[in-house]
Each structure stands twice: as C-alpha cells, then as structure tokens.
Specification:
mainly alpha
C-alpha cells in the first residue's frame, strides 16, 4: 500500500509517496480505532465512555491542527494556483487521485456516521463527544490536498 498513491516521479523539493501515504494511513488507522472504540463505548458506557471521550477529543485536536495547518499552506499556494475550498477539504475537481479521494472521504463518512449513531444511542454521556471526530477526517483531507493536491495554475 505504501507508495501506491504517488502521482509520478517526484521532482526536487517534492515529497515521496511514503509521506503522502502517511496522511492516508493516519486517516485509516484513526478512523478504524474510533469506530471500534466508539462502538464498544456505546455498548458499555459505564466502563469506557470517559477514556473514549478523551480519545475523541484528541482526534478533534489533531484534526483542528491539521485543518489550520492545511489552511496556512493553501493560502501560500493560492498566489500561484487556483485553490478552492471544495477542492481543498472535499478533494473535488481532480485535486487528488481517485484512490486517495475514496479512502480519505470514506474515512470522513465513516467517522460522521459512527459519531451520529453512537451519540444518538448514548446522548448526554461522554460517548457523544464522538461528534467532534469528523474534524479529524476533514483536517486530513485538507492537509493532503494542501501538501500534495493538484490545483490549476493561476493565469498571469
């Protein structure tokens, strides 16, 4: 899987496929861990709700940092490229190759569905903190697009 999402040979100063894949792998591992943890916490909230809520807040913090980081990188790229909000955070318009787009948006969708379901099953408990987790997926989508996405060049 590592190296499989590269667009081609990297030029000077560009990152390797391994670094691109790190964002994708982080999204998959974080999402899978969240799905398992939130599901188990919804079943046994007395025992696991608080530790899972702490984990949810940690994913939210990582996603928030990734979101801000991606925003700052996109602002820099916007001088030379036509950058869009949907392209950056939803990977639309050919910004990312289809496998990357499918995996990152799939992870974001899974986070949103699991967060809504578990929060609905256990409202007014720490399990409901899972509703913050899709920020993690959105931030990683933006980070991938800001660092590796293909945006059209701005006309001079």
């Amino acid at each position: 899987m590592l190296g499989s999402f590269a667009r081609g040979d990297e030029g000077p100063g560009e990152v390797s496929g391994l670094q691109r894949d790190l964002i994708v792998v982080t999204a998959v591992v974080g999402t899978a861990t969240f799905v398992v943890a939130a599901s188990v916490a919804a079943i046994w909230p007395d025992v696991l709700a608080t530790p899972v809520a702490v984990f949810d807040v940690a994913l939210f913090a990582v996603g928030s940092i990734a979101f801000v980081w991606s925003f700052l990188q996109v602002v820099g790229r916007s001088r030379y490229e036509v950058v869009s909000v949907p392209g950056t955070w939803l990977l639309t318009g050919g910004v990312a190759p289809a496998p990357v787009r499918r995996i990152l948006l799939g992870a974001l969708a899974a986070q949103a569905v699991v967060a809504l379901v578990t929060a609905s099953v256990r409202p007014f408990t720490p399990v409901a903190f899972g509703i913050l987790v899709p920020t993690f997926g959105l931030g990683l989508c933006g980070l991938w697009a800001a660092r590796h996405g293909s945006f059209p060049a701005r006309d001079r």
